[in-house]
Structure formats: structure tokens, C-alpha cells
Design goal:
The protein is an alpha/beta fold and 235 residues long. The chain has a single domain, classed as 3-Layer(aba) Sandwich (Rossmann fold), CATH 3.40.50. It is 44% helix and 20% strand. It has a seven-stranded parallel sheet with strand order 3-2-1-4-5-6-7, with helices on both faces. Strand 1, helix 1 and strand 2 form a beta-alpha-beta unit. The longest helix has 29 residues. The radius of gyration is 17 Å and the shape is globular. The relative contact order is 0.14. Bound molecules: NADP nicotinamide-adenine-dinucleotide phosphate (NAP). NADP nicotinamide-adenine-dinucleotide phosphate binds next to helix 1, strand 2, helix 3, strand 5 and helix 6.
Length: 235
């Protein structure tokens, strides 16, 4: 049995991850997704793993099952993340630790396993989703902002470690995304404050995000790695 190329997306039970999974399925791709909760997608080309990305054993199990099914990730989108909606002084240590475990350590674990497979097959694309919160230093999400800055730094270092392969690692900094959990968790004043800082304040549609990811994933972008691209006109 030959390998089947797939798009691996973390955090596909809802929000943007769910929209991305549906979009790639509609485009005819095989998609592997994961979340702590059950799958919300039923499709013959979709495989779901109920895992916590911050668990080394659970991430290893997902990759082992992918290898058994001969599913080889051509593209990894690190989307799973936890939000923070409290000032640092009101943020409990346990929820802060959980956020770092998912947003940074979890992405590291998934990248590590994906890169092993990609290096064996000498090809792969990784896109890490970060946020305009980083350059805006948005209030009420200090550790989230730091986790996303760390994710970009992780991607940059992984890009260096993958330089001798046709493997690229890039970051995509999203502004507010229409109909997603993190945008919905903000009140109107927080959304207005954020939009006031953007040259392009309109909410993002999934199609725009897919187009940017597909650019990074394209063969013609093989020499673009370790980069960070922001929506919204921030830098
Ligand atoms: N929405 C926006 O406006 C916006 C703006 C900038 C950046 N972003 C970025 O875009 C991405 C998606 O955001 P979103 O608004 O779609 O988020 P969301 O609606 O909160 O969805 C997050 C997804 O991640 C999964 N997840 C959370 N913890 C997990 C864990 N430990 N293991 C596995 N899966 C886990 C969740 O499923 P379970 O709860 O079932 O595990 C869910 O499927 C995030 O990286 C976010 O930082 C979003």
C-alpha cells in the first residue's frame, strides 16, 4: 500500500480548525484532525483523533495510527490553541500553565513527530497560526501573546533544522476571524479596540486564510521558510 498525502490540522472540532478541515476536504484532500473532544466531521477522507496535543503519548499514538493508515502529512497546520481573557494579575497559574502546554509545548510535540515523517520523505510544509495580538500587545492576553511569539520563534528554529530538506516552516498571523471561538469570546469593546489598530480591520474569511496557507504550501514557495506573515496590516 502506497502512502496517501494528507493535510494534518490540530484543533478541528470547532472554529477555524473545523472550517479549514471542511475546506481541504471540499478541495479533495485527505484530512487528519484532532481535538480533545469528539469529531464533528463525518467524511470518508477524514480521520479524527481524540487527543490532547500537550500529551506526548497521545500525540505519538496519533502519528502511529497515521503511519498504520499510510497517511503522510504533506502539510501540517498548527491551529489548536487556548485563549486567555484575563489580565495577568487575575490569571490563575494552572490555566496559564495549561495555555502554554497547548499553544507552545503541544505545537512542539506535533511538529517533532511531523518533521520526523517529513524528513524521511524529504518533503513537508508546516504553517503555525499566530495572532496580531503579538505586535499589538493586546491587553488581557499576555501569556497567549507570549505563547504565540514563542510559536513563531519555534518555527524559525525548526526551519533552520529542516533547511537541507524540501521542508518549510512558516507562521501566519491572523487578525480577527469571522465566526470562530476566539473572536466570539471577545466583547464588542475589545473587538473595536483591536480593529482600531488595523490598516485592514475587516473580519477574515476562511478562504483568505486557506489562500495564504496554500501559498506557503505551494512548490513555488519552497525557498520561503522561517517567515511570519500578518493579516490586517500590522507588523
Ligand atoms: N478566532 C480568531 O479571531 C483568531 C485570531 C487570531 C489567531 N487565531 C488563532 O487561530 C486558531 C484557531 O482559533 P479559533 O478561534 O478557531 O479557536 P477555538 O474556536 O477556541 O478552537 C480551538 C480548537 O482547538 C482545540 N483544542 C484546544 N485545546 C486542545 C488540546 N489540548 N488538544 C487538542 N485540541 C485542542 C479545540 O477542541 P477541544 O476543545 O475539543 O480540544 C478546538 O477544536 C488558534 O491558534 C488561534 O490562536 C484565531
Amino acid at each position: 500500500m502506497t502512502n496517501t498525502a494528507c493535510v494534518l490540522i490540530t484543533g478541528t472540532s470547532k472554529g477555524l480548525g473545523l472550517a479549514l478541515a471542511r475546506s481541504y476536504l471540499n478541495a479533495g484532500e485527505h484530512v487528519v484532525g484532532c481535538s480533545r473532544g469528539a469529531s464533528t466531521i463525518t467524511h470518508e477522507r477524514y480521520q479524527h483523533h481524540e487527543i490532547d496535543v500537550s500529551s506526548e503519548a497521545q500525540v505519538a499514538r496519533m502519528f502511529s495510527q497515521m503511519r498504520e493508515a499510510k497517511l503522510l502529512p504533506r502539510l501540517l497546520i498548527n491551529n489548536a490553541a487556548l485563549a486567555q481573557t484575563s489580565l495577568a494579575t487575575f490569571t490563575k497559574a494552572q490555566s496559564a500553565q495549561e495555555l502554554l502546554n497547548v499553544n507552545l509545548f503541544g505545537a512542539f510535540l506535533v511538529c517533532k513527530e511531523a518533521i520526523r515523517l517529513m524528513q524521511r520523505h524529504r518533503f513537508g510544509r508546516i504553517v503555525n497560526l499566530t495572532s496580531i495580538n503579538v505586535p499589538l500587545a493586546s491587553v488581557g492576553s499576555s501569556l497567549y501573546n507570549a505563547s504565540k511569539a514563542g510559536l513563531d520563534a519555534l518555527g524559525h528554529s525548526l526551519a533552520v533544522e529542516c533547511k537541507d530538506y524540501d521542508i518549510t516552516v512558516n507562521s501566519l498571523g491572523l487578525s480577527l476571524v469571522a465566526q470562530t471561538g476566539m473572536a466570539d469570546s471577545l466583547d464588542e469593546s475589545a473587538i473595536a479596540a483591536k480593529r482600531a489598530h488595523l490598516l485592514k480591520p475587516k473580519l477574515l474569511e476562511t478562504t483568505e486564510i486557506v489562500a495564504a496557507i496554500n501559498f506557503f504550501a505551494s512548490a513555488d514557495a519552497r525557498n520561503i521558510t522561517g517567515q511570519l506573515l500578518y493579516f490586517g496590516g500590522v507588523r
